[in-house]
Design brief:
Keywords: Membrane, Transmembrane, Transmembrane helix. By secondary structure, the protein is mainly alpha-helical. The protein has helices at residues 2-28, 34-59, 74-111, 113-121, 123-150, 153-170, 176-195, 217-228, and strands spanning 202-206, 212-216.
């Protein structure tokens, strides 16, 4: 039940992501006051962060298909699961931190011409903005490898489009084209949520020593195979 609730919530966030990007797209062709641009970019940043959190969370329900070799023991299966989760968390943490920094800089630079001039003239700010953009490109490239390992066509397309967006942001061209690309990503994400199935389940239980242990359906399958033997 909770799995389907997450799918619905992710779909709703994706629709909001389309809406805020449409507002951002329209702001490119209209002379809005700075206060309105501030609210448009602020809401874009907030919704974008929630959008990627939900999309990343859905990756945990997809099995890593990059390795065709089956685990021969429970210990080996558990190590693979833990390593996979650790790698995902590291990548997603880097991605989200860089995304937050990019959204903060977008709000400041687009809603305040004065701050735009200040950031452009102070080397420390230039390094911060440029560094976070490079970090965003790096995490976007890693996300492509994660999408490929899951063999999800929709995630692969989303990751490639996001890499294009990250490069355009690095080139200081976060405008109508990037807004359209983000809308396409949101539409693909909605389709992704519709067809998403819980292929990998992680459960946590208390062992005899009172410690919390993690089990996956891969480990549970190994238990059944050993019981049959």
């Amino acid at each position: 039940m909770l799995f389907y609730f997450k799918k619905i919530f992710g779909t709703v966030i994706s629709f909001f992501y389309i809406f805020v990007n449409l507002n951002f797209y329209n702001s490119i062709f209209h002379e809005y006051v700075n206060d309105k641009i501030f609210h448009i970019t602020l809401w874009l940043g907030i919704v974008e962060i929630f959008f990627w959190i939900m999309l990343f969370y859905s990756v945990f329900y997809l099995k890593d298909k990059s390795s065709n070799t089956n685990s021969k023991s429970q210990e080996e299966a558990e190590k693979k699961v833990i390593k996979d989760i650790r790698d995902l968390l590291i990548c997603f943490a880097i991605f989200l931190v860089s995304l937050i920094c990019i959204n903060i800089s977008r709000v400041i630079l687009q809603s305040s011409p004065y701050m735009n001039d200040v950031v452009s003239s102070v080397s420390t700010y230039v390094l911060f903005v440029g560094g976070t953009r490079v970090l965003f490109i790096f995490s976007s490239i890693v996300f492509i490898f994660i999408a490929v390992s899951r063999k999800s066509v929709l995630l692969i397309i989303i990751s490639v489009l996001n890499l294009g967006i990250s490069v355009m942001i690095w080139l200081d061209f976060d405008a109508n084209i990037t807004a359209v690309m983000r809308i396409i990503i949101a539409i693909l994400a909605i389709i992704h949520y519709i067809f998403l199935k819980n292929t990998v389940r992680y459960t946590f239980k208390e062992n005899d020593n009172g410690k919390i242990e993690m089990e996956s359906n891969q480990k549970l399958k190994l238990n059944k195979q050993e019981d049959k033997k």
